[in-house]
Design brief:
The protein has about 450 residues and is α+β, with helices and mostly antiparallel strands. It is built from 17 helices and six strands. Strand 5 and strand 6 form a beta hairpin. The protein is elongated, with a radius of gyration of 39 Å. The model has no long low-confidence stretch (mean pLDDT about 85).
Amino acid sequence: MKHNKHLRNFLIALIAVAVLVGLFAAVMLIDGLNNRAKQEIDIAQAQEMVDATLDSLPNNVALSSKYIRSRSSITVNDIKYGTQKDIILSCTYETIDVHTTIEDNVNDVLGSISINDPKTGKPKNATKVQLEVADKVQALLETAPTLSGEMEVYIYETEDGLQLYLSDEFVNTAFGGILDAQKVVQNTTTLTVNGESVDITNRNSLRNGCVACFKLVNYDMAKPDTSSPIQRAFNEFKEEFHRNFIEENRWMYLAQGLGNTLAITALSLILGVAIGFLVAAIRCTSAKTGKLKILDGICKVYLAIMRGTPVMIQLLIIYFVILLPLNIDKFIAAVLCFGINSGAYVSEIVRGGIMSIDDGQIEAGRSLGLGYVPTMWYIVIPQAFKAILPSLANEFIALLKETSVAFYIGVADLTLGGLKIRAITYSNFMPLIAIAVIYLILVLGLSYLVSLLERRLRKSEK
């Protein structure tokens, strides 16, 4: 019967998960089917858009880029529509081989430029180098061989309208390898001048002046965002998750912090239980026998202070006022604080359990010839412990959550781990939600174990 009940619960949970996954897949499928460009254009409109975009790319003073554009053309031959709000243009292109021309002549171009200004004797800046090198590059490009071929050009429908996708591949192809030519110049570190090798590693003005001849503007290789609101939200969530946790293994801050939190909680609970049972024993002995009055008074003061002041203030006082001058580690300070604080609540739980045991149990033990201590140890405390065990487990859960203030003294707990990620990424949502979710999972898991314990105790009573 019990086995069938567990199997039924498992099947219900499995069906619920399957339904959720199916609903998510259906939403994403419907969302994808609606992700087709709604605007339609003809070949003439597409051609006009391509030409206008390419005309806007060369910088006003980059004469070489303007010349390359004048020798280049892209012809739109066909249009088809994709499933990512994209319009795919089948094109042919014709341009000049800028990359090979510059690669074969980079030494002659840069080597012919005098590094210092003859008037001032100081190194030339990039602007002067650009003016001097422009004519040489122009002459080379006039004799550059022609390139032609086929390519696909993408137009995306965004919230701001239709946008031509200026990928690196598209721009490089349309301008005859202009981006590769820029890399050739930037990566040139030595020249051969009059048969001698000259190091130009630190001659940035020389290289930058040459690159400026090929400069392009209004150029962003980022792919336009055409995702639907659902996809966009999902993509943003993935990006935020990756940036906060996956990138540079930042999840380790949470993992290490969780380990410290669990260690503080476990050690504090052990200390709290020890203190709680001791205080409860003193108070119960005083109440039942009238002895230990002075110790009972001390315990009452301890309870009043621990239960009457916030745990965070106790933590700050114990570390900064008492233990820091003694050079005690902050982790130990946290364990002592939470252990002493928890001991006050444990003592009242234990005292309540002991006092709930009928006095007839003590009298029965004494009638058997047992002393007060053996009677309490062998008869009263076992019965009381069974009654207070669920409450002690709940105190463990409360203690786990209370340790979240340990970061105030610099302990690398779970909360501080999340705050470190927040300080690095300047993101509030992900790190704080992660902290809350981890605490929630821990508390739910412990609560479930406590419920199992309570059911087991109820069965044993029957």
